[in-house]
Amino acid sequence: MKFLDLVSLVFYNLNRRKGRVVLTAIGVVIGTAAVVILVSLAVGLQKNATSQLWGINDLSSIEVYPGYSETAVATTSMKGGGGGGGSMDSMRYLTPSAIESISSITGVKTVIIEDYLQNGMDLAFGKLHTYGNVTGVNVNDLQDMGLEVSSGTTELGRGTAVIGSWIPQNFYNPQARPGDPPLEPPDLLGQQVKMVIYKYTSDGQMYEKTVTVRIVGILSETKGSADYNIYMRLEDVTSYNEWSRGTRINRNKEGYSMLLVKTEDVKSVVDIAQSITDLGYQAYTPQSTVESINSFFLILQVIFGGVGAIALLVAAIGIANTMTMAILERTREIGIMKAIGAKNKDILSIFLGEAAGIGLVGGIGGVVIGWVASKLINVVAMSYFASQASSGMGSSLTMATSTPAWLMIFALIFSIIVGLLSGLVPAIQAASMIPVNALKYE
Q1: 20 to 30 A Cα–Cα from 287, which one of 3, 68, 259, 320?
Q2: SS3 112
Q3: Dihedral through CA 136, CA 142, CA 147, CA 150, nearest 10?
């Protein structure tokens, strides 16, 4: 039997019993729609969770901090240190030799040095003042760190700075009076600002150092620490720290505050972070957080999909019952088909095709209904959470459900497979009938 003839015969037979087929397919529709809706909910929650992770904007980066030597910590504990984290001698500093060791790890693209201003600082522009974290980096262009600007340039030079998006928002007027209108954020691009650095001596006396800095760029919002940073050249920040300490800084002994390690491939980030940890340093990567979240939501998707599949199991029983009744009603028809030359595989193909057809019809209906229901749930949920966020009683929601294409394809194929498996036993019974007995069946 040709394939097109088989398909034509299958849909002809299904059309003969419209009412029974529709009622049976409704069970498949409900089961498929349940799978689509529940898994869409899990996928939407996963995307919402990962999109709202604060400061995660570059999954190919690793933050490295000084660590403790395991040998030194163990020795301190044996001497009665109580395991309190080790002494200063046990520190693994981010020295130039440490940077070379980290740079030699396979998969590391570049290592960027970050050092922080170790003193208090006040940024003044006219009568306005603000604060921020002054960070020195050893790159001439902040694009090497994955940062972009909303205005200006990312290139750093001597006596220049690129500021985070929230620095202008935090300016205040110390001479403001009650009732004054809200302060408009100043336009700092290209402006000269005064950075007042102060330190205290052991006897409590304060000293100030004022430097003039030109703002050459304002970063785009990252929803991370970069929004509150003032980026300058590493040499400038080092000179400020040496002024506050009154001595030169020995990097071979004290190292740097932090390293930003950029990897060549996102897939190798976790392994590289583990290699850095094995060297005795503290390594943090947002990729590990994202992977943990994805693992949790993958389990949630399986659980939700399993709950929806229970409805499909009920529908499978309905398909098996429908096909069994169809065989009893069409026993003489089966006998006639065999008598005129139909083979067992032809009979098997016809009844399996009918069972799969019921699964296909129900699957298409379930996918459509599940997709529409997911969209409606998304609209209602986002409207509710938006109203809660506007009243200050909750946070906004980026999405509640998400129905990827693979889910709809999977649900449709799964419903067809359920139909095939449900009709397998009745189809085998039909194919194994003896023609003479089938023709005599009343």
Answers
A1: 68
A2: strand
A3: 100
- Which backbone phi and psi does 114 adopt, to 5 degrees? -125, 130
Write out the two tokens for 289.
């957080």
Sign of the CA dihedral 225, 230, 235, 237? negative
Burial of 34 (0-12, 13-18, 19+ CB in 10 A): buried
- Whether residue 154 contacts residue 217, with contact meaning beta carbons closer than 8 Å, is answered with yes
Q: Kindly report the backbone phi and psi dihedral angles of residue 254, in degrees, each rounded to the nearest multiple of 5, phi listed first.
A: -100, -25
Distances (CA, A) of 41 to 125, 179, 303, 312, 395: 49, 48, 12, 18, 18
d(CA 156, CA 141): 6
Which H or E element spans position 128? strand 128-130
Please provide the distance, in angstroms rounded to a whole number, between the alpha carbons at the two ends of the chain. Answer: 28
Lookup: tokens for 398: 């980026």
CB contact at 8 A, 161 and 137: no
**Token pair recorded at residue 273:** 């972070």
Q: Where are the domains of the chain?
A: 3-55+292-440, 61-284
According to DSSP, the residues that pair with 322 across neighbouring strands are none
Cβ count within 10 A of residue 126: 11
Q: Please give the Cα distance from 238 to 240 (Å, whole number).
A: 5
Contact (Cβ atoms closer than 8 angstroms) between residue 31 and residue 411: no
37 vs 28: CA distance, rounded Å: 14
Q: What is the structure's pLDDT at 233?
A: 94
Which residues does residue 91 pair with via DSSP β-bridges, in sequence order? 68
Residue ranges for the chain with pLDDT beneath 70: 1, 50-58, 69-89, 388-398, 438, 440-442
State the amino acid at position 6 in one-letter form: L
pLDDT at 136: 93
| DSSP assignment letter at 153 | -
Instruction: Provide the token pair at 190.
Output: 């290209």
Q: Which pTM was predicted? A: 0.61
Rounded distance, CA 161 to CA 190, Å?
10
